[in-house]
Write a structure and sequence with these properties.
Blueprint: E1 2-3, E2 9-10, H1 12-15, E3 21-26, H2 31-45, E4 51-57, H3 67-77, E5 83-86, H4 91-94, E6 104-108, E7 114-119, H5 124-135
């Protein structure tokens, strides 16, 4: 169970309930910018009905950075996409996202099975990799 940047709670069953899911994840300071670029490209290119979420691993966030500021920043940058706030850094590795990457895009089935992961900032080649993963969804 994780809250998003709008403080709405999301359970695993809710995220994976209705079909394939694309999750844009990251754990670095530059992640929000990279997430935003991926989110825009995905919304313009993936088939209707595929849900998109963000996942931010905030385990290493310095104690002096206000959580409210992090939420506000993500709400401004990703107003149409829920970004799950993993404050303890537990869900992020469970879903197979790499710890040191600025951004990765995971493609999952409706049951939560990971079909694949594309790591790196958005470019046409990586976007094509995500599309290929989506084409094999079950």
């Amino acid at each position: 169970m994780l809250d998003d940047q709008f403080q709405r709670t999301h359970r695993r069953d809710d995220v994976f309930a209705t079909g394939p899911v694309v999750i844009i994840g990251g754990a670095q300071r530059k992640t929000p910018d990279a997430m935003q670029a991926w989110e825009r490209a995905l919304r313009a290119s993936i088939p209707k009905g595929i849900r998109v979420f963000g996942l931010s691993n905030l385990r290493k966030l310095p104690f002096f950075v206000p959580k409210g500021a992090v939420r506000r920043n993500l709400a401004e940058m990703m107003p149409k996409t829920p970004v799950l706030m993993d404050w303890k850094g537990k869900v992020y590795p469970e879903l197979g996202f790499p710890d040191g990457a600025v951004v990765s895009v995971g493609v999952f089935t409706a049951s939560g099975e990971r079909l694949g992961l594309v790591t790196g900032e958005k470019n046409e080649s990586r976007l094509a990799e995500v599309a290929a993963l989506l084409s094999q969804r079950r």
